[in-house]
Amino acid sequence: MKKTTLIIGCGDIGTVLGQVLLKAGHRVIGVRRRAESLEGSGIEPLSLDIHEEGALAALPEADIVVYVLSAGRFDEAAYRAAYPDGLKAVLKELATRKTPPRRLFFVSSTSVYAQQDGELVDEQSPVEPGGFSGQLMIEAEQALSNQEIPGTVVRFSGIYGPGRDRLIRQVGEGRIVAVSPPMYSNRIHRDDCAGVLAHLIDAALKDQPLESLYLATDCDSAPLHEVMQWIAGKLKVEATEVIQSPLRKRASKRCNNARLLASGYRFHYPSYREGYVQVLEEGGFLTPQKA
Q1: Long-range contacts of 53-58 (CB under 8 A, 24+ apart)
Q2: Distance of alpha carbon 62 from alpha carbon 258, whole angstroms
Q3: If DSSP codes are grouped into helix, strand and coil, which group holds residue 139?
Q4: d(CA 163, CA 85)
């Protein structure tokens, strides 16, 4: 029989994940407030607002549940609704089911780390976020660990990919961050976000041992200046303005993906070089070469 995966918050990453799972023979159900965009994708659409009273009773049973909801806007109320409150409500509903899911995956963020001096961080590193976003993510992670349904948290670093091209556009305008002090950045291509989740889902369905937490980031925690300078070379533009790194307001750390690699996952885009080539080409940013 086909295994059923329920993706709650089936947006960009969820849709790519759904396509991967469909190719692997899964039945995939995608939940979002307005699921019309999933029509024709092969993913079964379910329009549902998880915050509406009684709405969660409509969630179908599934072997695997992926909670990859987005807050929609960057404020405390939206984050609380999307992450700890939303996840707790889903877990409460699933706990009442005669056949609960075999595992629930919660997509979290490396914003839970407060380190900002170039430290190397992994799944064992302390998490003491100063901002509300990290604090609420931690609250949601703890909610998953405090109930009986087997759960795994996946902390993604900075997600980029098609349509997520703000950095490219900054560089295209000749704006680049200073080389010193080095501000380390961490990223993961959208397709690898889907790939990581599909990999862990496959392991869960094969009853292979899984950790309760994985840090999902690519294999190159490079200084942001280096990344932007490399993009500038591809775009053939000169830097004309030095800007303050956006990381200065948040963190400069180096994320270690050793646990994920040890699980057997292999990246489609192991560094920003491979990943940004794909984004540059797909987005039409590169000047066509003359024959």
Answers
A1: 56/89, 56/90, 56/93, 57/93
A2: 30
A3: helix
A4: 29
Q: Does pTM top 0.70 for this prediction?
A: yes
User: What percentage of the chain's residues is helix, strand, coil (to nearest 5)?
Assistant: 40, 20, 40
Identify residue 17 by its one-letter amino acid code: L
Distance CA(46)–CA(60), nearest Å, equals 10
Q: Which residues touch 229 (CB under 8 Å, ≥6 apart)?
A: 176, 239
- 143-180 tens-digit pLDDT: 999 999 999 999 999 999 999 999 999 999 999 999 98
Residue among 186, 276, 271, 290 nearest 233 (CA): 276
Please, where are the H alpha helices in the chain?
12-23, 76-80, 86-95, 132-145, 166-172, 190-205, 224-235, 258-262, 272-282
Question: DSSP string covering 59-126, please?
Answer: PPP-SEEEE----SSSSHHHHHIIIIIHHHHHHHHHHTSSS--SEEEEEEEGGG----SSEEE-TTS-
Q: How distant, in Å, are the alpha carbons of 12, 148, 180 from that of 30? A: 11, 24, 44
- List residues bridging with 5 in a β-sheet: 28, 64
Query: What distance in Å separates the CA atoms of residue 41 and residue 253, rounded to the nearest whole number?
Result: 38
Closest listed residue to residue 38, CA positions, set 14, 62, 60, 70: 14
pLDDT digits (tens, 9 = 90+) for 238-255: 989 998 766 555 568 999
Closest C-alpha among 156, 138, 136 to residue 13:
156
